[in-house]
Structure prediction request, 247 residues.
Amino acid sequence: MSKLKRSFHQPLLIGFVLMIVIWYVLHLVIATRTIPAPVETFDYFFRHLNPLIIHMGASLLRVLVAVILALLIGLPIGIAIGRRKVLDKLLSPLLYVIYPIPKVAFLPVFMLLFGLGNVSKVMLMLFIIVFQLMLSVRDGVKDIPPHYFKVMQSFSAKRQHQYRYVVLPAILPRVFSSLRISIGISLATLFFAENYATTYGVGYFILSAWMKMNYVEMFSGIMALSLLGSVFFGFIDVLEKKLTPWL
Prediction:
């Protein structure tokens, strides 16, 4: 566990230091109120930590629910498409049509269907994550050499054992890579979605500060969004090292 913690903290610390250096250079070069000094922003961030935690918690909960739902839906469907040629021929063309569409375009549709509250925002992120996950899982299953299953069958292995010892180890690296990409896109989309019919969320906090021309507060919100993404990515890294030790 200590090795996992070190492997998470060291890259995060390096990235944090580099971000501060670049930020400070931009502050000096551009010399405008639009980009406040890092020290000033950190001071504001910690003085207003309690309300920021509430906004971060709201965003975190929305993304977390969307990720859990995407895993529950995307994993079994992706595995089924990869294992069944009939389903592959039927559903893969549909995925190819839907996947390239910018999902944020569906936000008005989800608002009409599910209302202006949290459900429409979660559905939008689910829509982003689930198709990426399905395609990654499908490709992971297809890449498994067929003789692996024949060996398992020759030992009279049950179906659940084939999935446990062959399919899951093969798709897990792709699942984690897919989640990293999807969560990054989801956070960007959530920033847009949280500006409608809500008073909690990092996206709402940032845009509210921008409209007030309070750029220190705005950058504090950007820091909070970055921290939220880092928490997700760090958690995925730890899970990946724990569940895929052979990589």
